[in-house]
Amino acid sequence: MRLLLVALGLIGGFAVPAFAADYDLPILRGSQQPVAPVTTVGPATFTRWSGFYVGGDFSYNNAIGDFSSATQPLVAFSLQNTAVQQLFMPSQLQLLGKGGDSAFGFGGFLGYNMQWQDLITGVEANYTRTSLNVTAPPVPVGGVARSIPLNTTLPLSIPAGTVTMVNLHNASGHLDLTDYAEARFRGGYIVGNLLPYGFVGFAVGRADYSVSATTDATCITQANTLNQAECMGFPLTASAGQNNALLYGFSVGGGLDWALTQNVFLRGEFEFVQFGISNIFFSIFDARAGVGFKF
After folding, report:
1. Pseudo-torsion of CA 151, 154, 158, 160, nearest 10°?
2. Tens digits of per-residue pLDDT, 88-108?
3. R_g (Cα) of the chain, nearest Å
4. Residue 2 CB: number of other CB atoms within 10 A?
5. In angstroms, rounded to a whole number, what is the distance separating the alpha carbons of residues 132 and 295?
6. Distance between CA 148 and CA 76 in Å, rounded?
7. How far is Cα 73 from Cα 88, in angstroms, rounded to an integer?
């Protein structure tokens, strides 16, 4: 009996460790649990747009020329020192309207970008070669008959009772824009490989233009023939114009650059440009598509 109890005790002593190992309970391993891995986030990365770049583009240009006030200084010159101009201002009449034209163009650009992570600011020079020919349509204005009433104190020594008829005719206006250049300031925001941007700029254009108007005056005097001095020197045609004239204005617009590789990008943009010269206001709406290279 004693030999049986001793044998059972020995078997139990070997079985308990084996039983615990089979269950592999965590509580039996204690501090042998592995340490959880630590995850770290690196610095954010953005497409590089900083530095110099150069490129070329094609454009479709739509122009509108407003000649509605272009003849005012010409008629005012023709009627200077006349009582009818000082009293009734016929020079303010609109003789010409708005004309339009469309044409394709081509050009190039050169710029420099400064980058602060996902923000871009920069300067850019653009040149566009095109041919926009705008002719102003005439506005029908028959004649302007004005009477200087009796007993009227006139600024000039023209007796009262004089009737002056002013005829404005043969007005014409034309502008031919050949090319223009811009200096732009632009800013953008990086979205992946895309750079949407906006810009404002100073623009200089080169054009041939001409404006003319013929003024005729007829006097009918109730008193005597001495008052015909009001109508001496008519008809008179006054004109203004110049070849290769410089037009100054501004530009504003926006676009999108798309980085295809580290150095090559595509560009698309819309732009509004306005020039002014001799009371002519010339506006251009254009759409561009181009390709550029970053250094």
Report:
1. -20
2. 788 888 889 999 999 999 999
3. 42
4. 6
5. 34
6. 18
7. 15
pTM: 0.75
Task: Give ∠ CA 10-16-19 in degrees, rounded to 5.
Answer: 135
Residue 233 backbone dihedrals phi, psi, to 5 degrees: 90, 5
C-beta separation of 69 from 94 below 8 A: yes
pLDDT tens digits along 101-134: 999 999 999 999 999 999 999 999 999 999 999 9
Rounded-to-integer distance, Cα 207 and Cα 173, Å: 13
Q: Is the dihedral of CA 54, 56, 57, 62 positive or negative?
A: positive
In this structure, what token pair is assigned to residue 12? 């139990």
| First CA to last CA distance, the chain | 98
Strands 264-277 and 194-221 turn out to be: unpaired
Domains of the chain: 53-294 (2.40.160.20)
Phi, psi dihedral angles at 9 (to 5 degrees) = -65, -40
What DSSP line would sit under the chain, residue for residue? -HHHHHHHHHHHHHHHHHHHHHHT-HHHHGGGSPPPPPP-----------EEEEEEEEEEEEEEEE-TTTTHHHHHHHTTT-HHHHHH-GGGS--B-EEEEEEEEEEEEEEEEEEETTEEEEEEEEEEEEEEEEEPPBPP---EEEE--TT---SSS--TTEEEEEEEEEEEEEEEEEEEEEEEEEEEE-BTTEEEEEEEEEEEEEEEEEEEEEEEEEEEESS-GGGGGGGTT-SEEEEEEEEEEEEEEEEEEEEEEEESSSSEEEEEEEEEEEEEETTEEEEEEEEEEEEEEE-
Asked, as a colleague might, if the bond just before 17 is cis with ω within 30 of 0, I would say no
Which residues 6+ apart lie within 8 Å of 188 measured at CB?
49, 119, 120, 121, 195, 196, 197, 198, 257
